[in-house]
Amino acid sequence: MFVAIEGIDGVGKSTIITKLKDILERAGYRVHTTAEPSQTPIGRLIRDWLLRSDSKIAHPSVFALLFTADRVQHYYGEVKPMLDNGYLVITERYMESTLVYQSTMGLPMDWLMELHKFVPRPDLTIILDAPIEVVIGRLRSRHKLEVFEADKEFLNRARELLLRRASLNNYPVINAVRDPDSVANDVYRLIIDALRRVV
Fold it and tell me: Which GO-annotated molecular functions does the record name (predicted)?
């Protein structure tokens, strides 16, 4: 099964995925966790670029094309081989991040969807959510903010769109304000329920 954990910056995705991997492995599952931007050369380029102040002046299509190129390479170079070997693969961010963030930047959703025609949807997409003031407080504790993390109004619009897409696509939404163990256990139960439906 291929699971995507989505949510705006600062919602706690990395922390929850780390805990989730431990819970699933103790339950006997073989788990591979990964993240986007990936560790491919394209992903490393994106990570570096997001910290540069001049990235703010780039046209929104540049972000969309780079993130999607990284996603295609990530899926076929890492995700699919692990799925083929019987692993449960969990990624931090996938297509919803690009659809939401770059749509919030003003790009048409139809075009963004078209960019993703070469990669499949995850078997399960889970949204972690927290109020904007909570995520801003978490982000400000970091040493250096990326371009998207520094704009509160942008993050708020992205959060609203992500929640609308969750409602439209029936993605489960998890309250990520609570302690990480409770959040991870809720996500674990969603994954186990989905696995049972597949079997």
Answer: kinase activity
